[in-house]
Design a protein that fits this description.
The chain is mainly β. 10% of the residues lie in helices and 41% in strands.
């Protein structure tokens, strides 16, 4: 299976393959840097290989704690919604994964506080229940500037978008086993074989596997603030992954 995977090294991103995948970013690069392995390169989204009924298991560690790691990183399944070197058009997001985002990222995932840090998450904005929200996007964004309106409506919108967000307390610099069980009607996230999150939200397939570390950030708040960019690296940072298995059940 690994023979068919794509390895992306963009603008200072480097990958060393073997029993341990070493994905690193070098300091001094300008613009977007990425080290990534995935199994959906050259495929259209309808051809992505994974559906509910899939288990991901791997061991991972990072070079820095979450107070010092910059950019985004993680592993799991998604539909590459914001484009890809081989898929150049956007889509509504679908993902189930372990995800890290540093300051100044702020993603509309948490009920309270900024949507960043090291967390387990699901999202599926492609369900029929979300279609009726499209004409209301601008009014909702404007009204969300009112905290009273936001506190009342955002939990309902999160439910429609199948959003789960749960912070992870494990130390990034130490080896941990991460397991994701993606079922038809629920998802389970385990760390060191202990369940840390079970949710009855589950994105539909097909999705592709991705494991990456990069230097980008994204701000997309429920109050309508949107911006993105890259963070300059003043030192090397990396992620290591071993014992990577994806199985059907």
């Amino acid at each position: 299976m690994l023979d068919n995977w794509r390895q992306l090294e963009i603008n200072g991103g480097k990958i060393i393959s073997g029993d341990v995948f070493h994905l690193s970013l070098e300091p001094g690069s300008t613009g977007y840097s990425d080290a990534q392995i995935d199994d959906y390169g050259t495929k259209s989204r309808s051809e992505y290989p994974w559906m509910p009924g899939t288990r991901l298991s791997l061991d991972a560690r990072f070079s820095h704690p979450d107070s010092a790691l910059v950019g985004t990183a993680g592993f799991g399944f998604w539909n590459a919604p914001f484009g890809d070197p081989t898929v150049g058009w956007p889509a509504l997001p679908k993902a189930v994964w372990f995800f890290y985002a540093s300051y100044p990222s702020d993603l509309p995932l948490a009920l309270k506080g900024p949507g960043r840090g090291w967390f387990a998450s699901t999202i599926d904005a492609n369900t029929p229940a979300t279609l009726y929200l499209a004409p209301l996007c601008l009014p909702i964004i404007l009204l969300n500037h009112s905290s009273q309106f936001r506190n009342r409506t955002w939990p309902k919108i999160r439910k429609k978008l199948n959003i789960t967000f749960s912070p992870i307390q494990s130390t990034l610099e130490e080896w941990h086993n991460y397991q994701l069980d993606w079922h038809d009607v629920n998802c389970r996230f385990l760390i060191d074989h202990r369940e840390m999150l079970s949710t009855n939200y589950s994105p539909g397939g097909p999705l592709g596997f991705v494991c990456w570390i990069d230097n980008q950030y994204l701000v997309a708040t429920i109050g309508g603030r949107v911006r993105w960019g890259t963070i300059s690296l003043d030192r090397k940072q990396w992620m290591e992954v071993k014992n990577l298995e994806i199985t059907r059940f």
